[in-house]
């Protein structure tokens, strides 16, 4: 995704929480937000709309077990669905698979592909495993390789440019370049995040899989079409709708990000809660599965403010 040098936020090989002595004399972990801030930047809070009074109300998970389990679960689910789609489903011939099996596998694989990218995104934010940077990044690299062979370090650099210059044309690699029309913006977005090396890896992987007995038609559907549909889902719900300006010339700082009011179940089905996008920029140290919690905090605080007015 994108072209350029190394990120100023160089991934460390490992960043395990140091231990300090608590009030009872026992070992106590350093505050996880302080750990996070030592590696990543907090959002700009000097612009109207930052809603700074809520920033201390969200706290990250007490341990990393759930984040790691979810990431591993999505990776395993992808492997099982990909194997089924490539080797077990028959698209042609007299033993052609039932259409419900074909369609169901495609839809589930597309959704899990979306989850792989969301997992990579969380890894770039250090929120899969807050207390061990090496494990966090390993899971992110595995997820993005299975998804579409992207370069994790390049994605890391580009993504933090997005957070550092949200909605600024020419500085935010995710933002439009003057034309916010959906087809134009999407094409520019895909161009920004594609490289010749990525395509070379995909071609090589497809050749290896065909040599291993996977039919070409299966590769087209389950290796190519599924991640492409997932890419549009990710762009539409995670970039286009949240950062769409009312006017093409308007700079969409993160404080202007649109956030859906969809119920939790629908938000998950849309794009793993990434339509709760203002909350993601407000608390970039919140994993995707805690964005509904962040959304509830904002809704409660705004309701209280309305009652006091």
UniProtKB/TrEMBL annotation:
<feature type="domain" description="Fatty acid desaturase">
    <location>
        <begin position="98"/>
        <end position="197"/>
    </location>
</feature>
<keyword id="KW-0560">Oxidoreductase</keyword>
<feature type="transmembrane region" description="Helical">
    <location>
        <begin position="67"/>
        <end position="86"/>
    </location>
</feature>
<protein>
    <submittedName>
        <fullName>Beta-carotene ketolase</fullName>
    </submittedName>
</protein>
<dbReference type="InterPro" id="IPR012171">
    <property type="entry name" value="Fatty_acid_desaturase"/>
</dbReference>
<keyword id="KW-0472">Membrane</keyword>
<dbReference type="GO" id="GO:0016717">
    <property type="term" value="F:oxidoreductase activity, acting on paired donors, with oxidation of a pair of donors resulting in the reduction of molecular oxygen to two molecules of water"/>
</dbReference>
<feature type="compositionally biased region" description="Polar residues">
    <location>
        <begin position="1"/>
        <end position="22"/>
    </location>
</feature>
<dbReference type="GO" id="GO:0016020">
    <property type="term" value="C:membrane"/>
</dbReference>
<feature type="region of interest" description="Disordered">
    <location>
        <begin position="1"/>
        <end position="26"/>
    </location>
</feature>
<feature type="domain" description="Fatty acid desaturase">
    <location>
        <begin position="213"/>
        <end position="302"/>
    </location>
</feature>
<dbReference type="Pfam" id="PF00487">
    <property type="entry name" value="FA_desaturase"/>
</dbReference>
<keyword id="KW-0812">Transmembrane</keyword>
<feature type="transmembrane region" description="Helical">
    <location>
        <begin position="98"/>
        <end position="118"/>
    </location>
</feature>
<dbReference type="GO" id="GO:0008610">
    <property type="term" value="P:lipid biosynthetic process"/>
</dbReference>
<feature type="transmembrane region" description="Helical">
    <location>
        <begin position="216"/>
        <end position="236"/>
    </location>
</feature>
<dbReference type="InterPro" id="IPR005804">
    <property type="entry name" value="FA_desaturase_dom"/>
</dbReference>
<keyword id="KW-1133">Transmembrane helix</keyword>
């Amino acid at each position: 995704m994108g072209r350029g040098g190394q990120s100023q936020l160089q991934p460390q090989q490992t960043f395990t929480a140091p231990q300090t002595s608590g009030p009872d004399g026992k070992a106590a972990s350093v505050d996880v937000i302080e750990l996070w801030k030592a590696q990543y930047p907090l959002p700009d809070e000097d612009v109207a709309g930052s809603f700074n009074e809520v920033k201390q109300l969200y706290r990250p998970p007490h341990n990393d077990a759930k984040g790691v389990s979810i990431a591993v679960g999505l990776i395993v689910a992808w492997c099982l669905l990909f194997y089924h789609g490539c080797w077990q489903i028959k698209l042609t011939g007299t033993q052609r698979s039932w259409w419900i099996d074909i369609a169901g596998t495609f839809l589930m694989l597309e959704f899990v592909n979306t989850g792989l990218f969301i997992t990579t995104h969380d890894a770039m934010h250090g929120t899969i495993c807050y207390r061990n940077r090496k494990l966090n990044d390993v899971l992110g690299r595995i997820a993005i390789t299975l998804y579409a062979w992207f370069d994790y370090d390049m994605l890391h650099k580009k993504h933090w440019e997005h957070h550092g210059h949200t909605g600024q044309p020419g500085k935010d690699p995710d933002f439009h370049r003057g034309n916010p029309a959906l087809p134009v913006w999407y094409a520019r977005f895909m161009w920004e995040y594609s490289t010749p090396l990525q395509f070379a890896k995909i071609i090589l992987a497809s050749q290896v899989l065909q040599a291993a007995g996977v039919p070409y038609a299966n590769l087209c559907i389950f290796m190519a079409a599924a991640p492409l549909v997932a890419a549009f889902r990710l762009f539409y719900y995670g970039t286009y709708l949240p950062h769409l300006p009312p006017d093409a010339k308007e700079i969409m700082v993160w404080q202007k990000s649109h956030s859906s009011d969809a119920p939790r179940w629908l938000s998950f089905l849309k794009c793993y809660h990434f339509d709760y996008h203002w909350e993601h920029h407000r608390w970039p140290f919140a994993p995707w599965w805690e964005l509904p919690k962040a959304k509830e905090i904002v809704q409660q605080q705004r309701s209280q403010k309305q009652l006091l007015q």
